[in-house]
Specification:
The complex is a heterodimer of chains A (485) and B (290). With 485 residues, chain A is α+β, with helices and mostly antiparallel strands. Chain A is built from 17 helices and 14 strands. In chain A, the strands form four sheets. In chain A, strands 6, 7, 8, 10 and 12 form a five-stranded antiparallel beta sheet that branches. Chain A has a four-stranded antiparallel beta sheet with strand order 11-9-13-14, with no helix packed on it. In chain A, β2 and β3 form a beta hairpin. Chain A starts with 6 loop residues before the first helix and ends with a strand. Chain B has 290 residues and is mainly alpha-helical. Helix content of chain B is 48%, strand content 3%. A two-stranded antiparallel ribbon of chain B has the order 1-2. Chain B is elongated and about 120 Å long. Chain B starts with 14 loop residues before the first strand and ends with a helix. The relative contact order of chain B is 0.13. Classes of the chains: A alpha+beta (485), B mainly alpha (290). Chains A and B meet through β7 and β12 of A and α4 and α10 of B.
Chain lengths: 485, 290
């Protein structure tokens, strides 16, 4: 680009650029409270992700012994003691609602806690940074190296770095597919190239996406790809605690030496010594002192960096800390700080979480392991038989969610003198049809209900199908209609 | 494009050198990745021409290195489907009709196969739900012209009725009016008599004794003395509530005057034996099977 007037200058006049060319961020390592929290959370989250598929859970004969398994071919979802069938997918809806509400609540309390500590993009990028730092050195070494021509040693280091990155990415993709099949078997099959092609394809896709997102795109994902910062900006309010540079305390910035001189003369000088450590450690390459901004994922590393410097120069820590503009203004007005974690917004989110949890728990505890659904014939809806009686046909689907076969009886409460017949079940020796339900399956039956109906004043009447487990006494029922022609 | 050293003063960027009424065009090249992607599509197209059929010739087309043909792949897919289906269907072929009815797995398989075949071949006349129409029997009810047992249904599907097949059901409802066997007055009388058999209202001046006599002399041969019908002849039961063509006086007069001779095609030549078997099981399980 030809430069007489720089593009940056021009755009600065018009406001923020929509896109600026990627400048590589080289965050410096840092130690402190929030860094420690982040390391621990990373170990916990990634540990769960990588190892959960290998946790065993004994379920009995014929059922998979994996604690968490999404068995797509058999349409079963296992989560420890919970086994979900496709028609119970609303639990996932509930989980998604819960996740959204938890995100909103976190946001109302402490801003983008998700972004800074829990988001996979943050976790893996952090891990990739750690690898990079370990091999290529910290910020200064990398910046120095980047300015110099390439050497064999540096090339070798770079190859090593990418190799380790790819290994992490590969294991990330590998762990993903383990949730969809028996992990131990799949690992063996993958190693011996016996696994289905789809497993390799997914590992490939997730390896590539992890490698690219965490190794190359990094903060670009947060700034340009992720919708949450935009939504978050609309959802947050003035009481939420955000990583904030307390400019009431920090300004005017002044170098340490000069500040001593000025203070000695009794002039007011801010605590910020303009050491730029907060910007140097920032994984998204922003300067928090410019105020709340889109690029800030609120990971708190600048707090650690600033605290370290403040301790060194003997000033009070938390010049950067979790705070909000209300408190800055209150301090400037000489008032005391005020924190309001309990306010209508947080109460609403917390109540919604409680309600959804309660509903899900109730649904989970009250669900039966024997179930049925009834579908009335649509064509024809009713058949007149030669003796003048009316017959309706139904497709009855019986669900046996238990791990053993069992015998159930079908009967109905419906039109007077109605009789039930199950197609394919000729020898009805008792007064009601009996069916053997195989374990962990659905059984579809064609059921015919015949009734002599003299009173034609009503077009239809309710009919209740009831299945009773002969052994256990479990009962399930469903209501449909008996229709007249 | 030729290089211009013409730099726009305000933006500091080069221009294309084009100028219209003092307005100059900034040179804003497409991003490199975009250009590369564009070249890649060109390369892809050339590769495609080589590998796949692409160019029309005078009487043919370039077949491409792979000799790919959608027609061939469809034929291949169908063959694969048949093979896949064949393995499952062979089990149906080996089992007897009653075995299929008693085994829930085989029954479900036969019903599934029968349902699709029914929709393709039978629904045209009998309706998609097999509820029938005027002249086309309802297969859901318990009234059967030629018998409703599994074997009888199979027989009917295989050879049809009045289909021209050597083994087809044959039965004739005479045209009593057209052929001059009965006079119109007698036809009306016997029509009313038949209505009375299933409890339907009769005309005010209906002569029951005459009706009984005419029926006994002309109709009882096929429909039986008590009008219960005869499945060997396809003669319907006239005492129940189910009527193939309708039970009102005008329809009955028409039926008696001109006769009826509905045709059910024979399917044995058109559908393979296993499919016909599945179809019979499906029809039987609709609810009318005896």
């Amino acid at each position: 680009m030809n430069k007489t007037v720089s593009q940056g200058d021009l755009l600065a006049e018009e406001g923020r650029p929509l896109y600026v060319a990627h400048k590589r961020v080289h965050p410096q390592s840092v130690r402190g409270t929030f860094r420690t929290i982040k390391w621990r959370l990373m170990v916990v989250c990634l540990g769960i992700y990588y190892l959960l598929p290998f946790v065993r859970w004994h379920r009995g004969l014929g059922a998979p012994d994996q604690a968490v398994l999404l068995d797509l071919p058999n349409r079963r979802f296992y989560f420890f003691f919970i086994e979900l069938w496709p028609q119970e997918l609303y639990y996932f809806t509930g989980l998604l609602v819960l996740a959204a509400m938890a995100l909103f609540l976190m946001n109302a309390l402490g801003g983008r806690i998700w972004c800074g500590y829990l988001c996979p993009q943050t976790a893996w990028t952090d891990l990739f940074y750690a690898v990079e730092r370990w091999i290529e050195g910290d910020r200064r070494e990398r910046l120095r190296a980047a300015a110099r021509p390439m050497t064999m040693e540096r090339a070798a280091k770079r190859v090593l770095k990418h190799a380790i990155w790819l290994m992490i990415a590969w294991w990330t993709g590998g762990a993903w597919v383990l949730y969809f099949a028996d992990a131990q078997t799949l690992v063996r099959d993958l190693a011996t190239f016996q696994a289905p092609a789809i497993a390799y394809i997914w590992i490939g896709i997730l390896t590539a996406s992890t490698y690219l997102l965490a190794g190359y795109m990094r903060e670009q994902v947060c700034v340009y790809m992720c919708p949450w910062p935009r939504i978050q900006a609309a959802l947050t309010d003035e009481w939420a605690l955000n990583v904030t540079y307390k400019y009431d305390r920090g300004e005017q910035r002044c170098s340490l030496k000069k500040s001593f001189d000025l203070r000695a003369r009794g002039e007011r000088v801010g605590d910020c010594i303009d050491c730029n450590q907060c910007a140097a450690v920032c994984p998204t390459g922003i300067d928090i002192r410019n105020g709340a901004q889109l690029g800030c994922i609120q990971c708190g590393l600048c707090i650690d960096a600033c605290d370290a410097v403040m301790k060194k120069v003997g000033r009070k820590t938390r010049l950067i800390g979790y705070d909000n503009d209300i408190n800055i203004r209150r301090r400037m007005d000489g008032k005391s700080e005020l924190f309001k974690p309990v306010r209508p917004r947080t109460i609403v989110y917390a109540s919604l979480i409680a309600v959804v949890c309660a509903v899900m728990l109730y649904a989970l505890l009250s669900r039966t392991l024997l179930d049925l659904s009834v579908l009335h014939d649509r064509n024809p809806v009713a058949v007149k038989l030669s003796d003048g009686s009316i017959r309706n046909g139904y497709t009855v689907r019986l669900l046996n969610k238990r791990g053993f076969d069992r015998v159930v009886a079908i009967d109905i409460d419906g039109p007077p003198e109605a009789s039930v017949h199950v197609v394919g079940l000729d020898s009805v020796t008792v007064d009601r049809p009996m069916i053997v339900l195989a374990r962990d399956t659905t059984t579809e039956l064609r059921v015919l209900v015949t009734a002599p109906v003299d009173d034609k004043s009503e077009r239809s009447m309710p009919v209740r199908f009831r299945v009773t487990d002969i052994g256990l006494g479990e009962v399930a029922s469903a209501t449909d209609h008996f229709v007249l022609p | 494009m030729t290089e211009h050293n013409d730099i726009d003063r305000i933006s500091g960027r080069s221009t294309t050198g084009h100028e219209w009424d003092g307005i100059r065009e900034l040179n804003t090249p497409l991003p490199r990745w975009w250009i590369l992607a564009f070249y890649a599509t060109i390369l892809w197209a050339i590769g495609y021409w080589v590998v796949y059929p692409a160019w029309p010739l005078l009487s043919n087309y370039t077949t491409g290195a792979l000799h790919y043909s959608t027609r061939a792949s469809v034929v291949n897919d169908l063959a694969g489907l048949e093979k896949l289906r064949g393995e499952k269907m062979a089990v149906l072929g080996k089992a007897s009709l009653s075995e299929i009815e008693k085994d829930p797995t085989l029954l479900a398989l036969a019903r599934a196969r029968g349902k699709t075949v029914f929709a393709d071949n039978c629904a045209l006349c009998h309706g998609s739900g097999a509820a029938g129409a005027k002249g086309y029997p309802n297969l859901n009810d318990d009234d059967w012209l030629w018998g409703g047992s599994l074997d009888q249904i199979l027989q009917t599907i295989q050879f049809g009725a009045r289909s021209g097949h050597a083994e087809a059901h044959e039965g004739q409802m005479l045209a009593f009016g057209r052929d001059g066997i009965l006079k119109i007055g007698e036809i009306v009388t016997v029509a009313n008599y038949v209505r009375s058999l299933s409890g339907l209202a009769t005309a005010a001046n209906f002569d029951a004794a005459a009706g009984t006599r005419i029926f006994a002399e002309n109709c009882a041969v096929c429909h039986g003395e008590n009008a219960k019908g005869n499945q060997a002849l396809g003669a319907p039961n006239l005492t129940d509530g189910i009527w193939l063509y309708g039970s009102d006086e005008a329809t009955l007069v028409e039926t008696i005057s001109y006769g009826r001779a509905g045709v059910m095609p024979a399917w044995s030549g058109r559908l393979d034996p296993i499919t016909v078997k599945a179809l019979a099981v499906y029809v039987h399980s609709l609810g009318g099977g005896q």
